């Protein structure tokens, strides 16, 4: 009788891949976690309890078949594990690195609830796909039959790229338009290299290009090319622009020099540190933390990216102001721990009241307490009167989240319907908008969200696009 390969969580403790020492991590932008060795990946995958109702799977936006690929990994059947993994996820090696597993799959693991420590799902997923690339198991995009229909995708972020991948595999002709000089969106320029190595992204971009996806880069829709022109060139258009408009700060001095947007700061760092681009704002020190006191305002994953980047750039101090406490912050707790290890100081229950200096030299901080719950159920921060103090700062980074740009105005398309929040109105799952043959996916529909949700939206939308193209072809054939 074959030995049971699973249910080892009682005998084997949870063990993440080894993490580089914080003093070493601060010196570069390299990945901080080592890769699992084969034996360790097999051992950790074997901890899965194979529960009848897999909460890890139901809480994954892509509904990845996690128990099955964990079991296959535990049995040493890695190529099959990869096939199962990629069947529901276009970019599993990216999700394995940047998904907040502590809030999604791992946070809902049954054995975690029983006190045995969650299965290290993200680390195993990363290991499976990295092994697949190394062994040539990742298949090129080779449609069985080419189709004449053409789809234009506006935005080369995770949602747009996921849609491009699925459409090309179906034989549809695909053109992706993006404002940046490299595809990937936030995967390329927003997320630091220590969380997502840039060769991982460029490898996928190359696969798409080699598979027949056409990229039109450095293209600002509404300026370099009109939205109407794009619609005229394609049978369908998918809007996947993401949200890039930064939420602003108020208070006296909020317009001072030295108060910068998180997206500008992270883009400059990624260009200079990961791609070796010439970035004048980085070289001048305007968007470079070296030798400076840095204050980051916000508590999400973007704020964590900023504080950890500033540490690596050689800031003399890095402080993060967040108006709620640690338990209520939206960012990954794993990221907070990594940041603290690297030297970031968190000032919980604090918020900016104003700013001093031109350029800025201090943040006027007021202390907060948590009051009654708001409409979302979270306790509302309340100001503690008379608690103000000055926090010295040479650069203040606004990491308060992102909002949609005004696409109907920017694109000269007032008939493109948006919600009161400025997001594009689109059907749930299909992405269909009120405009014929126009779809919208990802953050431009949801508001600022996770990469994994953008991938899910891209995949779902393609199903609808293919259905609609087939329906149009059937009518034309009658």
Automatic annotation (TrEMBL):
<dbReference type="InterPro" id="IPR036188">
    <property type="entry name" value="FAD/NAD-bd_sf"/>
</dbReference>
<keyword id="KW-0560">Oxidoreductase</keyword>
<keyword id="KW-0004">4Fe-4S</keyword>
<dbReference type="GO" id="GO:0004355">
    <property type="term" value="F:glutamate synthase (NADPH) activity"/>
</dbReference>
<feature type="domain" description="Dihydroprymidine dehydrogenase">
    <location>
        <begin position="26"/>
        <end position="136"/>
    </location>
</feature>
<dbReference type="GO" id="GO:0051539">
    <property type="term" value="F:4 iron, 4 sulfur cluster binding"/>
</dbReference>
<dbReference type="Pfam" id="PF07992">
    <property type="entry name" value="Pyr_redox_2"/>
</dbReference>
<feature type="domain" description="FAD/NAD(P)-binding">
    <location>
        <begin position="151"/>
        <end position="458"/>
    </location>
</feature>
<dbReference type="GO" id="GO:0046872">
    <property type="term" value="F:metal ion binding"/>
</dbReference>
<dbReference type="InterPro" id="IPR023753">
    <property type="entry name" value="FAD/NAD-binding_dom"/>
</dbReference>
<dbReference type="Pfam" id="PF14691">
    <property type="entry name" value="Fer4_20"/>
</dbReference>
<dbReference type="InterPro" id="IPR009051">
    <property type="entry name" value="Helical_ferredxn"/>
</dbReference>
<keyword id="KW-0408">Iron</keyword>
<protein>
    <submittedName>
        <fullName>Glutamate synthase</fullName>
        <ecNumber>1.4.1.13</ecNumber>
    </submittedName>
</protein>
<dbReference type="InterPro" id="IPR006006">
    <property type="entry name" value="GltD-like"/>
</dbReference>
<dbReference type="InterPro" id="IPR028261">
    <property type="entry name" value="DPD_II"/>
</dbReference>
<keyword id="KW-0411">Iron-sulfur</keyword>
<keyword id="KW-0479">Metal-binding</keyword>
């Amino acid at each position: 009788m074959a030995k049971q390969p699973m249910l080892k969580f009682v005998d084997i403790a949870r063990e993440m891949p080894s993490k580089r020492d914080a003093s070493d991590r601060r010196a570069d932008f390299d990945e901080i976690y080592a890769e699992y060795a084969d034996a360790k990946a097999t051992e950790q995958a074997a901890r899965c309890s194979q529960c009848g109702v897999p909460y890890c799977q139901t809480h994954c936006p892509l509904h990845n078949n996690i128990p099955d690929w964990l079991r296959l990994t535990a049995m040493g059947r890695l190529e099959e594990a990869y096939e199962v993994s990629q069947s529901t996820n276009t970019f599993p090696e990216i999700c394995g690195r940047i998904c907040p597993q502590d809030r999604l799959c791992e946070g809902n693991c049954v054995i975690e609830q029983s006190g045995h420590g969650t299965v290290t799902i993200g680390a195993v997923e990363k290991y499976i796909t990295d092994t697949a690339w190394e062994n040539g198991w990742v298949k090129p995009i080779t449609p069985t039959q080419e189709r004449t229909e053409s789809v234009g995708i506006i935005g080369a972020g995770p949602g747009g790229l996921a849609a491009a991948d699925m459409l090309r595999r179906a034989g549809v002709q695909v053109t992706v338009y993006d404002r940046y000089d490299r595809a990937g969106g936030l995967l390329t320029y927003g997320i630091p290299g220590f969380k997502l190595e840039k060769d991982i992204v460029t490898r996928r971009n190359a696969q798409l290009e080699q598979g027949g996806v056409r990229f039109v880069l450095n293209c600002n829709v509404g300026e370099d090319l009109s939205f109407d022109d794009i619609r005229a060139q394609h049978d369908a258009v998918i809007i996947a622009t993401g949200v890039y408009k930064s939420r602003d700060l108020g208070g006296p001095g909020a317009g001072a020099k030295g108060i910068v947007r998180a997206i500008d700061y992270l883009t400059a760092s990624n260009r200079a540190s990961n791609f070796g681009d010439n970035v004048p704002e980085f070289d001048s020190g305007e968007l470079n933390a070296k030798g400076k006191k840095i204050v980051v305002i916000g508590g999400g994953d973007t704020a964590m990216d900023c504080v950890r980047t500033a540490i690596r750039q050689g800031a003399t101090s890095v402080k993060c102001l967040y108006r709620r406490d640690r338990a209520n912050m939206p960012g990954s707790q794993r990221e907070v721990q990594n940041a603290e290890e690297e030297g970031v100081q968190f000032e919980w229950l604090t918020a900016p009241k104003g700013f001093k200096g031109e350029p800025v030299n201090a943040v006027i901080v007021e202390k907060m307490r948590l009051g009654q719950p708001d409409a979302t159920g979270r306790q509302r921060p309340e100001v503690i009167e008379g608690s103000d103090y000055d926090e010295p700062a040479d650069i203040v980074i606004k990491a308060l989240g992102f909002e949609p740009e005004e696409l109907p105005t920017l694109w000269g398309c007032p008939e493109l319907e948006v919600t009161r929040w400025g997001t594009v109105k689109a059907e749930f799952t299909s992405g269909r908008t009120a405009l014929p043959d126009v779809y919208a996916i990802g953050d431009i529909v949801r508001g600022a969200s996770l990469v994994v949700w953008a991938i899910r939206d891209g995949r779902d939308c393609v199903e609808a696009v293919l259905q609609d193209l087939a329906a149009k072809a059937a009518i034309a054939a009658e």
